[in-house]
């Protein structure tokens, strides 16, 4: 067989194809437009407004006067406000730590059950998680109220004597936080742990690890990516919570979320509320950056 | 756990395990000697894995007792038992390097001072011919290399017993033959009792000093590879290890009378009553005429269905007078005078057959 192939001539793009590509692009834009406009109108525009307002001067009636000042930010350095930010970060860190610990233990328990049992138990975790946040928080008011079910139990066990005043308190508020974010912590940890070969735990036992070291030396290092994801999903939303401290904590020890609400509504100081919001946003982005870097470093080391 | 050097490495006394009302393992009594290469052989679901997990301590027996090196192991958790296991999936820790995997037990059990760990790891990797692989990550290794790392990790603390769960199951055929010899060599070198659990009869026959054959949760025979193959204790063992022809009839101790086929001589002193005569295909000869049957042989007339050429042998399928089939394997030279569809005589030395009552 003989081949007499001429070098391929450059193929000019036919005008039809060019208009086809243009139409394709137009369709893409048309399809993206509703979502894009929604994001623009409901996220970007308010965000720009909040950032703008955080540099504005307040008028005497709770409105915005305009102008430009850094005073709203410098005023946030007042110890009263700093305390709120510090307390929020501390609460978020503590809540994250407790949720990770409980989430890990629950995940470990779940992963060790039979597949049918795992499904049922997961459902028991997911269904309350789908229930409205507010409703679940109200439920805790009933549970922890004087003479309520929890009080009845502690009475029966002899821990308390008679009605106990647990609400409002910092403790109740913390219980509410842990309860609200525990499922968010369980899911990523459980998903990672399920991907870990169960014989690795047995191999660790076989090679001399008791219960504690099976976890510290083998299982915990292997679920670290799940723990990081859980930390991210717990820490950041906790910073913005405001319903739980109001309902269970009596609004005394405020989180940043409560502070922002107070600044906007009670103090009628929109520029300062806006400044507090921007600071919260920066804190959240910073924590995403820190945890994200840690996750990336982890991936590089294990791959 | 201190162990007695003269006691059996493992002693199982009437051990049973019940899962949800059914016996996975039932009434197993067994001694595994020190420095022995022992195999637990059986089809999947026979309880061999459960039996092994009771030795490692991952499961507690529901009945009976386990002794390790003469010391009762009841209630001793897995991490306090002086034995290690080679997992079927190798179970190497993916977050640790090869060297850290191998050193794992030394660090956890503090068996050596920190300064000596590096030397111990190099020595263990040399044992499995992986010198210089210490810095690699587990993900960079091939299946065969992973198994070698797992062996080094399991042996570095010099356990008195190593349990191997289907050690060659995940390897390809060529690597399997190589590893069979190598495991045997390593076992001789380190002088550790090896107990493998396998469903592969060839693996058990080539590597073991002794084999326990399990079926339905029970140990049905414990013997040397030769004993298990040549003198199977039951119809199950005779058919699970290698292949056998079975002819059912009534034995009077000297002949087995098979209905429709006649009386066949068997070794003296066999069982009496309802019995199966078992004979391996390679012990059966085939010829075309009755006068070619060697004197003293048991012989059966049949019709040759087909002869299959196997290279080293020829396999003949015969239909017998009662409609049953008999398989014979002969060396290639013996095929003269046989035609498919024609008459054929199958014959064997009576001593090559076994009378089995179970």
From TrEMBL, chain A:
Superkingdom of origin organism: Bacteria
Classification via InterPro entries: MetI-like, MetI-like_sf
Organism: Streptomyces doudnae
Domain ABC transmembrane type-1: residue ranges: 85-291
GO cellular-component term (any): plasma membrane
PROSITE patterns (alphabetical): ABC_TM1 (PS50928)
Ranges annotated as spanning the membrane: 26-49, 84-107, 119-141, 172-193, 227-248, 274-295
Membrane topology reported for the UniProt record: Multi-pass membrane protein
Protein's name in the database: ABC transporter permease
Database matches in CDD domains: TM_PBP2
Family the UniProt entry places it in: Belongs to the binding-protein-dependent transport system permease family. CysTW subfamily.
Automatic annotation (TrEMBL), chain B:
Classification of source organism: Bacteria, Bacillati, Actinomycetota, Actinomycetes, Kitasatosporales
PANTHER family: SPERMIDINE/PUTRESCINE IMPORT ATP-BINDING PROTEIN POTA, SPERMIDINE_PUTRESCINE IMPORT ATP-BINDING PROTEIN POTA
Record's keyword terms, sorted: ATP-binding, Nucleotide-binding, Transport
Domain ABC transporter: 10-241
Pfam families per record: ABC_tran (PF00005), TOBE_2 (PF08402)
Organism (species): Streptomyces doudnae
Cellular component terms (Gene Ontology): plasma membrane; protein-containing complex
Protein name: ABC transporter ATP-binding protein
Gene3D superfamilies: 2.40.50.100, P-loop containing nucleotide triphosphate hydrolases
UniProt-recorded Gene Ontology molecular function terms: ATP binding
